[in-house]
């Protein structure tokens, strides 16, 4: 059996997955990213390989590195931007999907997907970390809730309360008042 892997080293979390030759997920993991992207990749791949029953990533037929720290995945056969990976991954999973919103730790991306799974166009926010994963973590902390609790609570909201601050630090202090 051949195995293939992906390691997405993001600014907040590092994700790794191993697929078999039929495309079935054999193992996956998500860990908090470390300060050093290479150490994040090594830790995530060690964990996912152990879950898959592999000694290490050398047993993979091919490995893609992606994300903010994609160039620091030392054992990757190829590095591809997360924008391209999102587009092709969504296309393979459901070719009907034509738009993706990626809320990452430091930015938010809107991606338009073409009929062949390539990126037609994309846009990123440029307002600090407002609206990103870090922002939602900070807001949950302000309300003394876990992120899953905060997410669930947001679905029951009756009123929209605008936050005028464009920066997570200022928005957090505005909410805490």
Which keywords apply here?
single chain, 177 residues, alpha/beta, Nucleotidyltransferase, domain 5, 3 domains, five-stranded mixed sheet, three-stranded antiparallel sheet, 5 helices
Describe the protein's architecture and organization:
- This protein is α/β, with parallel strands linked by helices and 177 residues long.
- The protein folds into 3 domains: 3-80, Nucleotidyltransferase, domain 5 (2-Layer Sandwich), CATH 3.30.420; 83-124, no CATH class; 133-176, no CATH class.
- It has helices spanning 37-52, 82-93, 133-142, 147-154, 168-176, and strands spanning 3-9, 13-20, 25-32, 62-66, 78-79, 99-103, 108-113, 119-124.
- Strands 3-2-1-4-5 form a 5-stranded mixed β-sheet, with helices on one face. Strands 6-7-8 form a 3-stranded antiparallel β-sheet, with helices on one face.
- It is globular.
- 25% of the residues are buried.
